[in-house]
Amino acid sequence: MAINNSVTQLNIQQNVVPTKQDSLPIEQSTKYSEQLEEVRNLLKYSEQLEEVPNLLKHVEGVPIKLVEIVDVLQKLCINHNFEQEIDSIVKTHYTTISNGHVSNHDQSLYEVSINFRILRHHGYYIPADVFARFKQKNGMFLEEMAKDVKGLMALYEASQLSIEGERILEEAADFSSHALKEMMPFLDEDEAIMVKNTLEHSYQRTSSTFMVKKFIKHYSGTTMSQLAEMELAKLQALHRTEVTQIFKWWKELGLAKELKLARSQPLNWYLWPMASLEDPSLSEQRLELIKPIALIFIIDDIFDVYGTLDELVLFTEAVIRWGVNSLEQLPYHLRICIQALYDITREISDKIYKKYGFNPIEYLKRTWINLCEAFLVEAKWFASGHLPNADEYLRNGIVSSGVEVVTVHMFFLLGCATNEDSATIIKDNPGITFCLAKILRLWDDLGSAKDENQDGHDGSYVTYYMRENEGCSLENAQEHVMSMISNTWKQLNKECLSPNKFSAPFIKACLNLARMVPMMYNYDENHSLPLLKDYINSMF
Questions:
Q1: 105, 150, 225, 226: which one has the fewest Cβ atoms less than 10 Å from its Cβ?
Q2: Phi (first) and psi of residue 96, to 5 degrees
Q3: Domains and CATH numbers, the chain
């Protein structure tokens, strides 16, 4: 682990600190005090960073303790400081278990569950039958497990990393969730809160930064919680700086001024790169990724509320031809959007080329063509009165979700391609993007309210499914969609297991995108997004 020696970068010498005899202006004296306080905080931060590797060395030879520390580092969102140590611990632990040096029969439900979750979280395949010994001959889970709160929470968390066909993990999810709910009235307040958080916001399917304050409180008084508090404060300051830059960029772009009916929500858009690229060192990538995200929303609104069908056909053709005498026939407000798309895509491609030596513009262009063609399909459906069946709608809706645009930009911004061979990985392996897009589309269509600033005409999988299944209630349709989302998560879990052609940072970013989806689309009965509001308040 390399610790950034930020203290020396401040270049504060002892001889510039004012003595009692000095008569400095109040403003200058305050400035020195602030600098000294920053130095003290940085020194404390550096000391605490050093304490974690010492703690890891202290528990060497006790695998479960090492796994627990890895778990805490991840939950407190300080794991990026210790990636090498964590990778080494997890790899060694997997090798030990794979070689049979750890007996599953000697471990508790909690130990088996946390081992399973941490290893699968890091891409290592552990068979689900490690949980078989916790079942009775009749196939039911052991009754005594129903009283083990810690073990049940760990089991439920482990079950969220299931892949298709793992019936035992489906049963584990049902058993543990039911048992935990039954126990909640009899738990003390702290335990009840942890159980509630586990059931509502499992680690695998929830943005880690959304839960970080709760975990800081849970681990209060430890070195790692203190480090997490300082890290969170630094991260919040960094995010505020980035938001300021984004608002400046958005204002200067001028699209909001010309397209007054389109959404203008740079803060909400920023939440996507903020959550997906959570490592503080990825500031540049976050500031670039928000640009295509903003354009997705603007172009979506153009297709929904601005253009006539003829104009939308011309708009799509302009994207397909990409700059070849394609703008003359478009009205001004559509022309400036297309021009912004050209300019931003070229600028991002140039930056990626300068940094990594490969120009991805053809790959980026293809995602925009796919998106606009999918938008146009929906526009033609609406104009003609055609009602697609649910599967037809969903196939197109997966593309019109815009997820492909985001993941492909993210892939290149993270430096995952330095030549044509490595660039084709994102094209030849669409599974992760497909799962992300399906999860987002289905969650979006579950929403009970449209975006408050959008009056377009969107379809809905729920609506089409109910139309095809006579007598199906809204509640039944929504249950069906939630089941589809759960199954798609199983596909995504499988796509993220090793061996994998994608880098760990890219996989992590994609999972973070999926984890962000419920916050962005989970409307309550008041047609608002309470989870999203909580997240914004927490991070800013």
A1: 105
A2: -60, -45
A3: 29-225 (1.50.10.130), 226-539 (1.10.600.10)
Give the chain's residues under pLDDT 70. Answer: 1-42, 101-104, 325-326, 448-458
What the block records as the tokens of 34 is 């602030």
> pTM of the full predicted structure?
0.90
Percent of the chain whose predicted confidence (pLDDT) is above 70: 89
pLDDT at 272: 97
In this structure, the dihedral spanned by the alpha carbons of residues 16, 22, 28 and 31, taken in order and rounded to 10 degrees, is 50
- The token pair at 309 is 């069908």
Question: Hey, what are 13's tokens?
Answer: 């010498």
Contact call for residues 292 and 344 (beta carbons, < 8 A): yes
Residue 2: DSSP 8-state: P
Residue 453: closest CA among 252, 268, 272, 313: 268
| Per-residue pLDDT, 5 | 32
Q: Residue type at 504?
A: A
Handedness of CA 354, 358, 361, 367 (dihedral sign): negative
Count other C-beta atoms under 10 Å from residue 472's C-beta. Answer: 14
**Three-state SS across 216-285?**
HHHCCCCHHHHHHHHHHHHHHHHHHHHHHHHHHHHHHHCHHHHCCCCCCCHHHHHHHHHHHCCCHHHHHH
Nearest Cα neighbor of 195 from 142, 159, 148 is 148
From the list 473, 495, 356, the residue with the least C-alpha distance to 412 is 356
- What is the pLDDT, as a whole number, of residue 29? 57
